[in-house]
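2024-03-11 09:14:02 DEBUG pipeline.ingest accepted 1 chain
2024-03-11 09:14:02 DEBUG pipeline.ingest length=171
2024-03-11 09:14:03 DEBUG pipeline.predict start
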Amino acid sequence: MADPHALIELGSIVGVFGVAGEVRVHLHNPSSHLLREPTLVTLIAPDGSSRSVRLSVRSGAGKRILGRLDGVTDRDGAAALMGYRFGVSADALPPEGDGEIYVHRLLGADVVLDGQVIGTLREIHDDGPTPILEVTIGSQVAFVPLLDEFVDELLPDERRITLRPGALVEG
């Protein structure tokens, strides 16, 4: 079972917006409403140091997402936060909806093919049209599209992912 107090990264600060201290943010899940109201997050500096701060986000022009952090009131303060990441503890996340699974609950899960554990889930890449499972198999890495034709079951409570025959194709 995943640690309920583990820090779950929600996104990062990628730019500055205007002169009043707003920042441009990248959210790993831009459709989430978690940060629409000011929320206490852990802000993580590039050097690994961290502090708690309240953050709220709003839509900007186009697909931009803008954020406001308590205590940041000017462009210089916002610029100093470039490259910072932010997150919340797992127990602060809202319950999963029907058919939803938080990625952190699957990371490290056993990957099973033909009834045998063949590896572990290392990462889920979700920056394209189809999420991709990155699976460590011994000293090798395999990539499996998260599609019904390749993945039979995602079982976060059992820490197991079952692949369908043919999911792994040698290149």
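2024-03-11 09:14:41 DEBUG pipeline.report The chain has a mean pLDDT of 90.
2024-03-11 09:14:41 DEBUG pipeline.predict end
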